[in-house]
Each structure stands twice: as structure tokens, then as C-alpha cells.
Amino acid sequence: MDRPILVTGGTGTLGRALVARLLAGGVSVRVMSRRPRRADDDRPCEWAVCDLARGAGLDAALADVRAVVHCATDLRNDVAATRRLTEAARRTGNPHLVYISITGIDEVPLPYYRAKLKAERLIQESGLPWTVLRTTQFHDLVAAFTTVQRRLPLVFTPRGVRFQPIEVTEVADRLAELARAAPAGRVPDMAGPEVRDARDLARATLRAAGLRRRVVPVPLPGKIIRSLRAGANLAPDRAVGTGTFEEYLAARARAGQR
Ligand SMILES: NC(=O)c1ccc[n+]([C@@H]2O[C@H](COP(=O)([O-])OP(=O)(O)OC[C@H]3O[C@@H](n4cnc5c(N)ncnc54)[C@H](OP(=O)(O)O)[C@@H]3O)[C@@H](O)[C@H]2O)c1
Fold this sequence. Notes:
NAD(P)H-binding protein; NAD(P)-bd_dom; Ergot_Alk_Oxidoreductase; seven-stranded parallel sheet; 9 helices; NAD(P)-bd_dom_sf; Rossmann fold; 11 strands; about 260 residues; about 35% helix; alpha/beta; two-stranded parallel sheet
């Protein structure tokens, strides 16, 4: 059996899809999570308990891996966690480190994006063999912007902001390919098939959930919104994703989720 690929965040939205892709391709996988494996999880993979915010268990998680796909994210700790991961990887065999990042993080001054940019730089300067893929927002995140407001009488969207959401399983396919290939540095961004206004995406989400609400675009001030209005979160020249937002919503409705 080949040496495993470690997937940090292997229990998350992207991580779960990636683990499924790797296993389907006959790759040995080790999932990292802060929690022990659930009793009903019968996927044929190894499991490593580790909290990247503390580091206990990290060397064991990295032992004898050929690559690491770093999908774990914690809104407050991504820089420290990534530093800890790269330092431990240097100590334990220099595996290929593949990082998932976000389109436009150098232009949109959100604190989370600044942390992702710092994490990218840590990886690039770590001395490890590395690959970084940036993508636009996954469909589920864009749908969540609306579903979190479902109990309100109106749904608000930022006026003039557009998104180009992408199907997470397509991102997982690409990461699985990158993790098995030679380190490639910063690879071209991956974006969804359509650039859509936030209001239009909110209406589609409501329609698919059978909810009737008025969608109200709100003019918001500030640098973050200005950069989003200018399209810094989009990559229309990299619209390589094929799964549309409506296809995602329909699949979600079939699975009984709203
Ligand atoms: N969502 C998007 O639209 C989008 C778009 C582009 C890029 N990305 C990037 O894709 C990555 C994955 O996003 P996602 O939406 O799949 O995230 P998610 O569903 O929120 O999953 C986060 C994962 O991180 C793990 N985690 C959190 N804190 C941890 C810690 N201290 N130590 C170890 N593991 C920890 C969690 O594992 P446990 O809870 O099991 O410990 C979980 O598996 C992120 O880097 C994100 O920036 C996301």
C-alpha cells in the first residue's frame, strides 16, 4: 500500500468530498480531526486526532505521509495553525503540502482573507514542496448567506456584489489530482461556471426551499464591499467549474435539505 495522504479538515465540507475522491482513486488516506472517529464512520481510512491550535498529535498525524492537503480552517487560528503544520512537516519528512485558498484574497481586505494570505506565504516560504489552489466560494456557502436569514421577513443582500459559486466536488477532484502530482506552486484559480448577482442567488435559494421572501439589496459602505463590487472575488476567465448553483440546489432539495 502507498504511503497515505493526510487530509487536515477531512471532516469538513471540502475535506469530506476530497477524502471520498482519494479513496475512490485507490489512495490511502489519513483524516485529521480534533475529535475521535465517529462509531458509524466506516470509510476505509486512517484517523489522526489533532488540534492544530495546540499541536498535540501533529507529529503522529504526519508520520510517513507522502502529501498533506490542508483543508482545516478555524476563523481565528489559521495562521498559527498553518505555521505549526509547516514546522512539523519539516521535522517529519518534508511531504508535499497542498493548500486550498480563495480567489481574490490579496484584494478583499476581510480579516479571514488576510489570514489566508499569510498562511499561503508561510507555505511558500516553508521550504516544503508546495502547491496552492485558489477557488471561488462553494455553492453551500453562498446558499447559507440566504438560509441563515430564513426566519426574517426580508432577506438582505449586499447591493452590487456578485459571486461565482463552484461545486465543491469539482474542487475536491482537482485537489485529489494535485495531491498525487508533483508540487506545482501556485496553480491557476478555479471558479464556478456563472457570475451571478447576490440578489439573484438569494432568490434562487429561496425558490428552491419553497420560501417566499422579498430580497432587498442593501448599499453597504467600506473597502471590503468596494472590492467585492469591483469583482475582486471573481475569476470569469477561470470559469472551469461546470456544476451550476441551480443544480446544487436541486440536489440539496432531493436530499431533503433546505
Ligand atoms: N467554503 C468556501 O466557499 C471556500 C471557498 C474557497 C476556499 N475555501 C477553503 O477551503 C477550506 C475548507 O473549507 P470548508 O468550507 O470545507 O470548511 P469547514 O466545512 O468549516 O471545515 C473545517 C474543517 O477544519 C477542521 N478544523 C477546524 N479547526 C481545527 C483545528 N484547530 N485543528 C484541526 N482541524 C480543525 C474541522 O475539523 P474537526 O471539526 O473535525 O476538528 C473541519 O473539518 C478552508 O481553508 C477554506 O478557506 C472555502
